[in-house]
Design goal:
By secondary structure, this protein is an alpha/beta fold. Helices cover about 45% and strands about 15% of the residues. The protein binds adenosine monophosphate.
């Protein structure tokens, strides 16, 4: 069994690792640490939760040695400010016995304090791409002494459109340096980036692409509509013992707000909401409180889904099925982190089945179906919600078969119209406004008539 001392990790870091409770290196650490220490360019394909951050940090610390000069010798680029904060935390945890200096910088806050910290001298700069360039352009950062550059969460950075900024950074850093690229997936865009970024890299792959960490138990519930999803969520969250730290992922900010309001039975200090409309401080504080175990339930859109490391998450609940399938992998990656087990629960409506099938193909696993407990009230699907799902199903069929006419279920729409008269619309449903809904219904009627004429 390989140990940290087999990997020639020096005593001061071994002490820090011991204090953190890291008994043995993870597979990515076993492979990446020697490769990076030998000076090679390394591409690491590993999800968060595998220990990949320490896999590149530890050899970087050894290379840096000790605090020296004022210019940074290592830059680490990550896609979001939350990741910068988290990375700074990891560096702090790993370096209590060295004098290595580091600074985390990100946008959305004033530049002054960050510039001052850099001027005081930093051996490592951890940054989002845009802020690094901004500070460079204002001559607050000297990049000509960079010896190691890390692009972490490279796939995420490509998805977020940071390609231009990364190219601009590559123009201003020395060409002769060690380059490290880490990514959860090796997409075509990441591969292309690696061609630009590094010559003859060693590629280290820990799990096959997009395979969820094996420790995560996955289940799905087939739930007919929004209100029933709320009821099921309320039922699950009532079990405080096993559901002790949960992230509920939703598709939109609107649903996030609606779910938050529907959990009124849960004390407000136990739950928090984060999405991109929330101020940066609110997001960072929520994230910090959640990480420290001060809050039990986090409701989030995908802002948080990737890269964020929070330990001991008991459950990830996909209130909505993600339609970007990689997001499923990233979402469930929140649980079952580094040798722990967790559970990922996905709520599936009839319109989501298509996406679940695609996700199952991607992860090469079946997500087992669990029956909804009898005590959970299943409500009838309101007309407008049903129409929306039917419309989505038509869209999916058209996507798979462009000749599909999308007749739009004329019989069903009539039946569900009758039902709608009897079913009171749930007050918190996040769907369309009345006017939006009426205009859509009109459109529906026209297309269903057309369909009938043709027959
Ligand atoms: P990462 O994949 O870098 O996001 O790391 C996921 C989590 O695993 C972090 O909380 C690390 O602190 C933790 N971790 C990293 N290496 C080890 C290790 N060798 N043993 C136990 N936990 C680790």
């Amino acid at each position: 069994m390989t140990s940290f001392s087999d990997l020639k990790i020096t005593r001061q870091y071994q002490n820090a690792l011991e204090e953190l409770g890291f008994e043995k290196p993870t597979p990515i650490q076993i492979k990446a640490i020697p490769a990076i220490r030998s000076g090679q360019h390394v591409i690491g394909i590993a999800q968060t939760g595998t220990g990949k951050t320490a896999a590149y940090l530890l050899p970087i610390f050894h290379k840096i040695g000790y605090a020296k000069g004022t210019a940074a010798r290592c830059i680490i680029i990550v896609p979001s400010k939350e990741l910068v904060v988290q990375l700074v935390e990891q560096v702090t945890e790993l370096t209590p016995y060295t004098d290595i200096r580091y600074v985390g910088i990100y946008g959305g806050v004033g530049r002054k304090a960050q510039a001052k910290a850099i001027h005081e001298g930093a051996d490592i700069i951890i940054s989002t791409p845009r802020r690094l360039l901004e500070l460079y352009e204002k001559e607050h950062i000297q990049l000509n002494k960079v010896e190691t550059m890390v692009l972490d969460e490279a796939d995420r950075m490509m998805d977020m459109g940071f390609r231009g900024q990364i190219n601009a950074i590559l123009e201003v850093v020395p060409t002769k340096k060690q380059n490290l690229l880490f990514s959860a997936t090796f997409s075509a865009r990441v591969e292309e980036l690696s061609w630009n970024f590094m010559d003859f890299p060693v590629k280290i792959e820990i799990t096959p692409e997009a395979t969820p960490v094996e420790t995560v138990e996955q289940v799905r519930y087939d739930v007919p509509n929004f209100l029933s999803k709320i009821r099921l969520l309320q039922h699950l969250l009532a079990d405080e013992e096993s559901f002790h730290r949960i992230i509920v992922f939703v598709k939109t900010k609107k649903t996030a707000n609606a779910v938050f309001n529907a959990l009124s039975f849960i004390a407000s200090e136990q739950k928090r909401l984060i999405h991109s409309n929330k101020g940066q401080n609110t997001r960072i504080n929520a994230f910090k409180d959640f990480k420290e175990g001060k809050i039990r339930i986090m409701i989030s859109t995908d802002v948080m889904a990737r890269g964020i490391d929070i330990k001991d998450i008991s459950h990830v609940i996909n209130f909505d099925v993600p339609t970007v399938y990689e997001d499923y992998v990233h979402r469930i990656g929140r649980t079952g982190r580094a040798f722990r087990t967790g559970a990922a629960i996905t709520f599936v409506t009839k319109a989501d089945k298509y996406h679940v099938k695609k996700i199952e193909e991607k992860i090469r696993m079946f997500i087992p179906n669990r029956l909804i407990p009898e005590s959970v009230e299943i409500t009838e699907t309101p007309f407008h919600e049903n129409q929306e799902m039917e419309r989505a199903i038509d869209q999916q069929k058209i996507k798979d078969d462009p000749n599909f006419k999308g007749a739009f279920h004329e019989k069903k729409s009539y039946k569900s119209k009758i039902k709608q008269k009897k079913t009171k619309r749930p007050p918190k449903y996040t769907g369309k406004t009345n006017s939006g809904y009426i205009s859509k219904t009109k459109k529906v009627k026209r297309s269903s008539k057309k369909g009938r004429h043709k027959k």
